């Protein structure tokens, strides 16, 4: 069942089923597909702004390292949801670009901690600030509570997806 859109709070039965999910889930899939396609394109643009040779998939690593500081490669791989080989390749590329560096983990001399270099931090934050300004412009007509609700719902979706891995 879903709201019939008349603002009166009346509920109407979905034509396809008694549960109503036959209408809501295709709409969710459609909107997520468009959103993800645009997000991938945007991530690629932002990655190239950080460094022309940066892969778009590596941008998320910069986000994580900026927010959380030094991390083991295994922690980054688990968070991003990729294998060790993929993570090693991406980190090597970031290191070659001078955006990240490794240092021995003081808690385990066999492991390494990855962190943003000063150049990586400066480049990343400049691009991130520009992206946030773009969000502010794009959502200028939204009520701040709607923006907060969208962030809350996306977080809830991300947590749910992470738990299913």
Can you give a write-up of this model?
- With 165 residues, the chain is an alpha+beta fold.
- The protein is 62% helix and 13% strand.
- It is built from six helices and five strands.
- Strands 3-5-4 form a three-stranded antiparallel β-sheet. Strands 1-2 form a two-stranded antiparallel ribbon.
- The radius of gyration is 20 Å and the shape is globular.
- It starts with a strand and ends with a helix.
How is the topology of this model organized?
Blueprint: E1 2-3, E2 11-12, H1 21-50, H2 59-68, E3 71-72, H3 73-80, H4 84-96, E4 100-105, E5 108-116, H5 118-138, H6 144-163
Antiparallel strand pairs: 1-2, 3-5, 4-5
Largest sheet: 3 strands, antiparallel
Low-confidence stretches: 1-17
How large, in whole angstroms, is the Cα Rg? 20 Å
H/E element order: EEHHEHHEEHH
Topology, number of strands: 5
Structural class: alpha+beta
Distance between the termini: 30 Å
Name the average pLDDT: 85
Strand content: 5-15%
For the largest sheet, list the strands in their spatial order: 3-5-4
Shape: globular
Helix content: 55-70%
So how many helices?
6
Summary tags:
165 residues; 3-stranded antiparallel sheet
């Amino acid at each position: 069942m879903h709201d019939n859109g008349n603002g009166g709070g009346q509920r109407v039965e979905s034509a396809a089923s008694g549960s109503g999910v036959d209408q809501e889930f295709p709409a969710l899939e459609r909107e997520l597909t468009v959103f993800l396609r645009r997000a991938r394109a945007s991530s690629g643009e932002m990655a190239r702004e950080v460094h022309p040779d940066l892969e778009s998939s590596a941008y998320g690593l910069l986000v994580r390292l900026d927010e959380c500081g030094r991390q083991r490669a295994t922690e980054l791989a688990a968070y991003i949801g990729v294998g060790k080989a993929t993570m090693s390749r991406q980190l090597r590329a970031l290191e070659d670009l001078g955006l990240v560096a490794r240092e021995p983990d003081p808690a385990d001399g066999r492991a390494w901690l990855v962190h943003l270099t000063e150049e990586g931090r400066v480049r990343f934050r400049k691009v991130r600030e520009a992206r946030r300004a773009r969000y502010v412009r794009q959502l200028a007509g939204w009520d701040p509570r709607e923006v907060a609700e969208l962030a809350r719902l996306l977080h809830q979706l991300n947590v749910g997806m992470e738990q299913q891995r």
